[in-house]
Description:
heterodimer, A: Cytochrome-c3 Hydrogenase, chain B, 46% helix, B: alpha+beta, Beta Polymerase, domain 2, three-stranded antiparallel sheet, 3 helices, globular
Amino acid sequence: MTTTNTTNDQFKHLNLPPAITDLPRNNPHISIDDYDPEGDLLVMNLGPQHPSTHGVLRVKLWMDGEVCVKAVPYIGYLHRGVEKLCEHRTYVQITPLVDKNDYVCPMTNELAVNIAFENALGVTPPPRAQVIRTIVAEMQRMSSHLLAVGTWALDLGGALGGGATAFMHTFREREMLLDCFEELTGARFHYNHHTVGGVRHDIPESWSTHVLKALDIIEAKIDSYEGYLTENQVFKARSVGVGILDPKLGLELGISGPNIRASGVDWDLRRDAPFAAYDLVDVKVATAQAGDCYARYQVRIAEMRESVRLVRFFMKNIPTGPICALKQVKLATAVKIPANFSGYTCIETARGELGTWLVTPPGKKKSAMPYRLKIRPPSLHAVSALPWVCPGNNLSDIIAILGSMDPIMGEVDR
Amino acid sequence: MISPQANILFTEVYGLEADPAEGPWIPTDKLLEVAKALYEAGFNYFSYCAAAHYPATEEEEGYYNVSYRVRIVGKNGQEAAFRVRVPLGEETPSLAGIWAGADWQEREQYDLIGVKFTNHPDLRRLMMPENWDGHPLQKEYAIDTPHHPWR
């Protein structure tokens, strides 16, 4: 059951004891004193405050020259106790709270918890609400991937000779999507759009024209990003073969979404366990085989193109009818779920499997508050791969690995 | 939903009664054995480990409900869930030796809920600072508990 994620050749020049070169299963827990008794290694902190850590993440690194020997991530700098807060909020009040978890794609956060509540209540949203949910989820996936690709190119910026170009351009296109969300919900980031049984806001009159116009521009611009990134020799030198994630190890660690699809695992909850209106459409799942940073970038680009196609398809097929299965919720305590329920539902966000484990209070009475609400964030699992992937890489490559995994710290720490 | 393959393993091999959504209650001394059997049956994706705290009441003693969920991923993917009931003050075996992902997930549950995992390679707090008092997601822990400055 030993898993190796880097080749032994990378360590040859270091003359390290076998414990490191073999990278045994328990490598992240190996004692640093055993192979560095004299304390020759340089201990350094990556973060917690640094633009390239994409939030407040601290990684303690033991460096042999320029090569990392051991990496230990420290998280929790952004811990706000969301799960504890959820236990003291009603089901209606939880929706705007979980918006702030993954602040780069809040729409899918809301969707995840509301699907969990609907599953517990046995409510199915009307078809129009399902399609609106799917459209906003796909637009959010695009905006999230635009940010991921842009900021990652900025991380590699110095070597790229203008990584800031990609950053500026992706943010320009992301802005168009945020404008569409603003038109729909009145907010640019924390929408409070989904509700138990459907959505809160119906589509405004001219909205579809604006969205389709944005899609046309984004589709053309994806070609232009590829023009200055995909075949860029400097970009490839920084990312091809860097930070290879073994698919077997990745699955064991619970890594999902683009990160695991880049390692050749053909798995997407949109296709394999459809939620919202994804059962109406044939989702083409993008995969890559290499499992390195470049493959993760390729998967994100392919997913953006697929999202453009899906949004166009659903825009043409919006059914008429109500947008919420329940009466429009006015009271915070309007939604009550029976006691002694526990269940798990999950959806595919831009980062992977976002799940909600909902437990309602013991007893007999219906309650408007959960007893325990566990949010299973995909980013936490991506960060937990760092101790396995980083050893053997240069310091500059660790920045590339971190950015390519696209973790969002609000979601990691909750 | 528990897939048929996992259900057969739970009911026919181990004689456990499996809830369709949350899986069977497994006695703590059998947990490692069942988990290994699941891993060998191909359930190599570790989805999550989550715990809920039930303080003692007049009728029954307090316990933790520790739930796990694992998968076979892919087009015809399968899902399996199982849970253990750990009385307060007792420990449950760690699954970090079977699924690497259980390592951080168990650390998180130890940190926030207070469940102790036997033979865990590195059972430190994950989210809260090392000098934090108590486990915030326990039911007795008031939401407005004062705390030391965070350094």
